[in-house]
From TrEMBL:
Spans through the membrane: none
Family as reported in the entry's similarity comment: Belongs to the MGMT family.
GO biological process: DNA repair; methylation
Domain Methylated-DNA-[protein]-cysteine S-methyltransferase DNA binding: 108-151
Keyword DNA damage: yes
One annotated Gene Ontology cellular component of this protein: nucleoplasm
GO molecular function term, any single one: methylated-DNA-[protein]-cysteine S-methyltransferase activity
Full protein name: Methylated-DNA--protein-cysteine methyltransferase
Superkingdom in the source lineage: Eukaryota
Keywords for this protein: DNA damage, Methyltransferase, Transferase
Organism: Podarcis lilfordi (Lilford's wall lizard)
C-alpha cells in the first residue's frame, strides 16, 4: 500500500525538464523541486567527432520556464562531467526523487552504491558492484537493478559504465 501511495505522490509532482546539448547528443533531465526523476540520452544519438584538442561543450538547449534547484545541480554536474571532469568530486550529487531510489530494496542499494562509490571514468562488473552493495553472490540481481535504473543515458549504458565480465 505504501508503494502505491508513494507512486501517487511522485505522479503529482510539478514536473520540469532541461535538455542539454552534449558530446553524446541531447540529454533530457526531468524532475521536480524535490529531485531529479529521470535522465535520458536521446535515441540514435551521434557522437561528435573532431580533433583531440577540440573544445567540448555542454549547454542548455531547452528548459521549462522554471527550473528547480535539483535540475540546476544536475546540469552543473553534466557540464563538469564533459568540460571539467576533475571538478566532479567537488560537486554534490543532485538529489533524486524517484520511488525506485527512495523505497528500501536491493535495487535502491545497488543504484546508490553506483552513484556513491563508482568514480568518474571507472568501470565495474556486475559482480564487483554486487560486492560493493553488500551481496557478493548477487551479480545477476545487479543486472536486473541496472535495467530498472531510471537514470540511464540509454538502453545499454548507465551513468557510470557497468560492464559484465
Amino acid at each position: 500500500m505504501a508503494s502505491k501511495l508513494h507512486q501517487k505522490a511522485f505522479s503529482q509532482c510539478e514536473k520540469m525538464f532541461v535538455v542539454l546539448g552534449s558530446p553524446l547528443g541531447k540529454i533530457e533531465i526531468s524532475g521536480c523541486k524535490l529531485g531529479v526523476h529521470e535522465i535520458h540520452l536521446e535515441r540514435n544519438a551521434v557522437l561528435q567527432n573532431g580533433p583531440a584538442d577540440a573544445s567540448v561543450s555542454c549547454e542548455v538547449c531547452e528548459a521549462s520556464e522554471e527550473t528547480a534547484e535539483p535540475l540546476k545541480q544536475c546540469v552543473a554536474w553534466f557540464q563538469a562531467y564533459f568540460c571539467e571532469p576533475w571538478m566532479i568530486e567537488k560537486l554534490p550529487v543532485p538529489p533524486f526523487h524517484h520511488p525506485l531510489l527512495e523505497n528500501a530494496s536491493f535495487t535502491r542499494e545497488v543504484l546508490w552504491t553506483l552513484l556513491r562509490d563508482v568514480k568518474f571514468g571507472e568501470a565495474v562488473s556486475y559482480k564487483q558492484l554486487a560486492n560493493l552493495a553488500g551481496n557478493s553472490k548477487a551479480a545477476r540481481a545487479v543486472g536486473g537493478a541496472m535495467r530498472s535504473n531510471p537514470n540511464r543515458w540509454n538502453d545499454e549504458d548507465e551513468l557510470n559504465v557497468c560492464v559484465e565480465q
